[in-house]
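Sat 14:20. Reprocessing the chain from the morning session after the first attempt stalled halfway. Input below, unchanged.
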Amino acid sequence: MRSRNDLMLAAGFAPTYKERPFDDPELESIRMAIDHILSAHEPYPAIVFDWRHDIIQANDAAMRLMLFLFDVSAPEEMPDFSNNLLRGMLHPDGYRASITNWEQTASTLLRRLRSEIFAIGNPEEGIAFLEELTAYPGVPEGWRQCADVEWQKPMLTVDFRRGATSFSLFSTLTSLGSPFDVRLQEIRIESFFPADDGARQFFEGTSKSATSATTHRMADAV
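Finished this time. Tokens:
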């Protein structure tokens, strides 16, 4: 939809599809559905993000995970870039030191981002974002090369370790069906699941009940 709008604008016409802000009244039923998905996924993390990987919304478990990874006790203590999923992982002041398979995880996510940038038809802004991420010190130089043939597990897991605590997660990505809005077409809901007993113990041992779960909107991303 974004690329179609760009073509219409280049030809001198009005864009075909709207791009409503996430708090638009017309999107109330969509927000309610997303709230349900995030709350129902407790006690495991789930987040909503756009194509830039700016976090729009997160459930309680995702907030607890971010606080743990950034080693802070409150959301306001997290760095400014923490509201972006990829910056949080790749930035030298982020939590990449807590990911034991960081090079493989970083390379896989950068390749996925590159594919998504061209898929949405917005390469100029997307390439600038990709160049920013890959310019961070320590980012794997060979991230463009796919080495997944060496991976022995059925899916990529992200393996975390901080202090004596270690656990692994894998994720699923959910999109909205048949959207007619640019923003809605581009948002994804990433739901994380335990890949080992350590993850189950970490999240189930610190969870709130599903009935009292809340979701958190990231104001900078709305």
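The chain has a mean pLDDT of 88.
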